[in-house]
Structures are given as C-alpha cells and as structure tokens.
Amino acid sequence: MPTRAVRWFRALTAPYRSSIQLKLILTMIVLSVVPVIAVTVLAVEKSRASMETEVVETNMSNMKWTGIYISDQLDRLNHLIYSIQISPDLSDYLNEREPDNLSSQFNAQRKMLNTLANVYYSAGSHVIGIQLYLKQSQTLFTFNSMQNEITTVGGIPSQYAEMWQANKDYSIRSSPADPDRFTLTRSIRRFEDQKQTGAISLEVLWSQFDQTLGLLGRGDQHQVLITDGDGRVMYPTQARQSPPPPGVLTALRDVKPGHGMLQTAEHYVFYNDLDVVGLKLVKIVPTSSINHSAFSTMLYGIAVGVISILVSICIAVFIAWRTARPIVHLARSVQELDMIKGPVGEPSTRPDEIGLLERSLHGMAGRIREHIQTEYSINLQKKTAELKALQAQIHPHFLQNTLQMIGSMVFSQKPEDTYEVIRSLSEMFRYVVREPQDMASLRAELDHVGHYMRIQQRRFPQRLVFQVETEEQAMDICLPKLSLQPLLENAFQHGLDRKAGAWRMAIRVEIMKEEVCITVSDNGNGMPPDKLEKVRAKLENASEEPIWAQGSHIGLSNVASRIQMNFGVHYGVTIDSEQGVGTCVTIRIPFISAEEGKI
Length: 599
Description:
The protein is of the alpha+beta class. It has helices at residues 4-18, 20-85, 88-95, 102-123, 158-165, 210-213, 248-251, 287-333, 353-360, 362-392, 399-412, 415-434, 442-459, 485-496, 529-540, 556-567, 594-598, and strands at 127-134, 139-144, 148-152, 170-174, 181-189, 196-205, 223-227, 233-235, 259-263, 267-273, 280-286, 439-441, 464-469, 478-480, 503-512, 515-522, 572-578, 582-590. Residues 336-344, 389-395 and 546-553 have low confidence and may be disordered.
C-alpha cells in the first residue's frame, strides 16, 4: 500500500504526467531561469576580476613609461652637470695653479661664473641654482637668480664631505630648508689619477616632475611617491599628501630591482626604479577603490539578471503554451503513418501526447537521422574544411623585404619613419593572427590594406602612387577576410615588377543597386589575350577546384572561391587587362546594410 506522502506526491504530479503543456511550461522555466542565474553570478564575479586585472595592467604600463620619462628628465639634469665638467673654462681654471697675477686670477674666475650663468639660463625654470666647489683652491662658486659670487671656504662643505665619506660620486637629497626642492650633486674627478677634485650641485624644484607624475592618473585615494633607496619619501611632502600606509615602504626594500607590483592585505603597491639614481617611483592603490569601482557594475549586472529571469519566465510560459497546441494536433495526425515500419525495439509507453508521437515516429527517426548524416552533415563538414583550409594559407609574403627595409632605415632614416613601418607591420600581423573570424568588414579590410601599402610606399617612395575611393554606406559590409591584399600582391608581382616609370594603383568601392563592386586597378604591364582567357576560365571554375591545390600563394581563384562559397555562384571575381596599359580586378558581393546584417 502506498504511503500518504506518496499519494500526495502522485496527486500533485498527476497533471504534469498527463499533460504535455504543463511539462513544457515547467521544463522551459527551469531551462531558462537556471542558466540566467548562473550566468549572472559568473558575470558579476568576472566583472570584478576584469576590473582588477585592468587596474593592475594599466598601472604597470603607466609606471613603466612614467619611470622612463622621469629618468629622461634626470638625464637632462646630468647633462647640465657634464656640460660644466667638460667646459674649457673649468679645465683652464684647474690647470692654472699659480696665476701670474690677480688680473689673470680674476679673469679665470669670471669665465667660470659666465659658464655657470650660461648653464643656469639654458636649464629652464625648474633649475633655481648651481654651485661649483673646487677642493684644491677651497673655492665655492654660487650662481642663482639672487646671487652670483665666489667665496673661499675653510673646509669641505658638509654635503660634499658626507657624499665623499660614503664613497659616492652621485647623490640626490631633498633640501632641508625647502622640501619642495632637491639637490643633485656629482663629483669631479681628475682624469690622471681619478682623485676627487671638487663637485657640482644643481638645486632643482620637485615640481618639474608634476606633469609627468600626472600620467599615473592620481585619484583621491591613490598615492604617488618618489622615495630613496631606504624607503624614505622624498616627494611629495607630508604637507601635500598624507603619509603612506605603515609597512608599505618597508616591504619595498626587499623587492627585486626594476619594476613590478606587490599586494598587501589592503593595497596594491606598484614600483619602478629610476635607472641608476637610486630613487624609486611608487604608486599605492587601495583595494577598496577597485571593489568600489566594480560595485556599480555588479549592481547593473544583478539588475539585468533579475529582469532577464522575469522575462525568461514569461517567454518560457508563452512558448510552452504555443508549442503544446500544435504538438497535440500533430500527435493525432501522425497516426496515419503507421504503415512505415520502424527499426526493431520497444515502442514508448509514455501516457501523454509525446508518447503517441514517439510511437508513431519510431520508425522514421532512424531513416531521418541517416539521411541527415549522409546528405547534410557531410556536405557541411566539407564546406567548413574548405573554408578553414583557405584561411590557413594566408600569410604575409613580403615579410623578408620589409624586415630588410627596416634594418636599412634604422641607420639612414628618422626614428619616426622607422616606427611607422614597424607599426604598420605589427598591425598587419595583429589583423591576420588575432582576429579569429572568417569574415571582416570592408572598413577593416581597407585599414589592413592601408598598412600594407604604407610599407610598399616606403619601399618605393618615388615611384608608387596609391589612391582609395569609397562610399561610406558600403564601409560596414562584410566580405571574406584578406580578400583585397592578394589582389595588390598580384599587381606588384605580375604587373608592376618589371615596369619602368611611375606605378599607380587604386581601389574604388561603388554601390550598384543590390551589389557592391570593389575594383583594384594598376598601370602595370597587363596580360596578353591568351593568358587573360586562361585566368578568366580559372576564375569561372574556382568553386569546383580543390582550394588546397592552388599553391602556397593566395591567387585570384582563391579569393573567388571564398566569395562564391560565402555568397553564392552569382558573385565572385572578374578581371580585365590590356597589355602595356594595366589590369583591373573587380570583386562583386551583395550589398547588405548594417541594419539588415543585425537582423
């Protein structure tokens, strides 16, 4: 005898067991709601993780480049000191140990002051003073906006004595009198015996780094610091910014040289060494700021998830109700198909309408599956394999020439020109390697071709002229990826390679009713009539030939085959050529607007 609980369960589930409509409603709700909930939870967590990754990568990149810029600024200050060290006036002054008279001594000192003045006025507004100390004569030259004087000191000034006592030739330290300044000092050594004969100091405003430090995007909760090798904050001062969290700067003492990041319980700490000056650039980002930035995105994700769940439930109920009605009608209609004998096996014993469908279609299912497998699936797999084989053939063929050109440009051209070629080559590889789609927009194709032609124009600057004429409405249409570059490569290889004089190439895009015509033309050598007929015959049969039998180069038939496989045999590639005049290749594809492509 069944228990009371079992009887209650059967009573509650009886409507679902006997009605396909209720089963569909319940199943559709579960299938639609559960994935939405799972996706919402994963999206919220992914949003927070993505925000964290983006913050870390952005700050690592910004710290690297900011460190380079600040190091360059410090190098320029070093160059000012070097200009004083190699000054002929300083050499003459040091070599004149016993001047003949006071007039000669006065002239030598005046020349040194003039040298300091020239360096001071050429250094810019951030250098506010220069000091030169000569150990042998105990002479101290001082030049700034308020004074320019020469004094004789009784001993080595303290800042130089401390530096030499620590066996250093280079030091940077904040000014005790004004924390907004720092002193950059470098020793002068005699060439013959490398003895220290003096020192040169520049008094510089820390504010010269403010604009560069602004590249790090300092927020209200972020801290950007410049520290010395012992972890002491040199800039900005506590008057400008609150002190860093305890323990952060201590942890930086044990990190490896260079740039990197360490994470504490409450902070992300990014650091970068400033070359050989012994300073370190530090940025401190609280973990709470990242979570706060991601919180708003998480709220939007949760709200969208709740709305999606409600919409999914409504759609599931509507679809289940609409689906059940024709199924019930069809179940009664398929009884006339009993004359078809199915494969050996037990028929379904389900009591609802689906059971009736299963019993009636039991014999048809095997044959239908076999037909789909033999007719449809095999053809589909073949076409997919052909498309993938085509894409696998695509490689840049002019890489060797481009690399050789870059190598020669490094020694003969401006860095900006060399960088332009490298950037164009990089964008070409990015387009070929990192874009997984088989189709691309005409805009993307033209950008890719622009990089290719920019490199070619660098190779042939006095000969090659390239023009592009487009219609804006056609820029968002799709075509097989890498369809235009092979046409340009063929023009170079077969049309322009042996032609004397100027080379002219052009791409023209026209909309003609329901078609888009893309024309690539050149003024090359052209083709003789017999060869032109062979090429046209090959283009007409491009879709019938195995695409992997067309060689290692991407030819016209390759492009034509891909276009016909994507758009049909009514579209493709045509060619016109006249020997001694040039060649014109036209691609015809259907015109589908951006709005129609989204439907």
